[in-house]
Amino acid sequence: MAVAIVFIIWKFSQQDLDFSLINFAHITPGLIGLLLLYIATVFILAYGYFLILSGLANKAPARLNTIRLYSMTGLYRYIPGNVMHLIGRNVIPATEPVSYAEVNIASSLEIFALFIVALVLAVVSVFKYFINYIQSISLSSTQILLVVIIAIAIVIVLIIFRKKIRSLKDAFIEKVSRLSAVRISQYFVLVFLTLIINAITYLLLLYLLNAITPGSSAITILGLYILSWLIGFVTPGAPGGIGIRETMMVLLLDDAVSMDYLLLSAVLLRIISIVGDVAAFGLVQSFYTLRNKKSGLATK
User: Fold this and answer.
1) Whole-Å CA distances, 105 to 8, 79, 111, 168, 236
2) What is the pLDDT of residue 17?
3) CB 274 within 8 A of CB 1
4) Which terminus, N or C, of the chain has the lesser number of Cβ atoms within 10 Å?
5) Are 126 and 225 in contact (CB under 8 A)?
6) pTM higher than 0.85, yes or no?
7) Which of 120, 131, 88, 134 is nearest to 107 (CA)?
8) Band of residue 300 on the pLDDT scale cut at 50, 70, 90
9) What is the rounded distance in angstroms from the CA atom of residue 227 to the CA atom of residue 130?
10) Share of the chain above pLDDT 70, in %
11) Domain positions in the chain
C-alpha cells in the first residue's frame, strides 16, 4: 500500500502537479472529514457482506469478527491482480461456522451488486456519455475476429464442462434461495449508499479545493466519477483499480474540472482511500482486541 501511494504520486508528478494550489492548513479539517466518510463506506459494505453471508450460512457467523476479517482482506486489493481480497476472504471459515462455498458465493453476489448498482447510477446520471461512447465505437476486422474467437472458446469450455457447471449452478441456486427478498433488498440499499457516499466524498473534495462552484453540474460529476470507479472496478490486474480509476477520472471529467485540480483531486482521493482502508481495519481490529480482553477478564 505504501508502494501504491508512491506509485500514484510518481505517476502524477509526471503531469507537473501544482501543489501550490492547495492550502493544506486550510483544508486539513475537511480532508479528515472526507476520510471519516470513506471509512464509513468500508464499514457499510462490510456489514452488508455480513448480512449476505449470515443469510447463506446454516449458522450465522459472528458479526464483529466477520467485519474485521472483511476489512483486513480489503487491504489485499492493493496486491496486483485485483482478486486477492476475494481469495483472502477464505480465512473466514477458519474461525466462523461458514463454508468456503458460502464465502465465495457472498463475494460473487457482492461483485454483481456493485457492478449493477454502479452501472445503473452511471447510466442514469450521464446517459448522453454512454450514447456518445457507443456511437464512437468502431471495431476493426481484427478486433471483430478476436471477439468471435473468444466467444467460440467460451462456448467450447461451457460444452466440455457442462456437467460440472450444472452442479455448481444447482449448488449456487440452492444457497442463494436461502436469502430472503428483504435481506437482498437491504443489501442493495447498502451498496447504493456506499457508492453514493463515495461519489459525494469526491464532489466535496472538489468543493474543498475550490475546483468547482456550487453552480456546477453536481449530478454529472457524480455520474462520471461512478463511471470511472466502475471501469477501475472491472479492470483485471489493476491493484485496487490504481491508475485505471485515476486515468478515467482525468478523461471523463476533463470538461467539468480544470486539469490542475483534476489531477490533484485524483491523487488526494486515492490517498484518502488507502489511508481509509488501513484506518478502518485498524479501528475494527482494536475494538475486536479490546472486547476479547474484556471477555477474558470477565471469564477469569
Assistant:
1) 33, 22, 10, 11, 19
2) 59
3) yes
4) C
5) no
6) no
7) 88
8) very low
9) 10
10) 81
11) 2-6+23-299
| Distances from the Cα of 79 to the Cα of 2, 84, 256, angstroms | 11, 7, 32
Find out whether 264 and 31 touch, Cβ atoms under 8 Å.
no
For 74-126, the pLDDT digits (tens) are 888 877 666 788 888 999 999 999 998 899 999 999 999 999 999 899 888 87
Query: Using an 8 Å Cβ cutoff, are 233 and 116 in contact?
Result: no
Cβ neighbours for 110, distance < 8 A, ≥ 6 positions apart: 45, 48, 49, 52, 191
Phi, psi of 79 (to 5 degrees): -85, 130
Nearby residues of 207 by Cβ (< 8 Å), 6 or more positions away = 214
Distance (Å, whole) CA 172 – CA 242: 32
Cα 156 to the center of its chain, rounded Å? 32
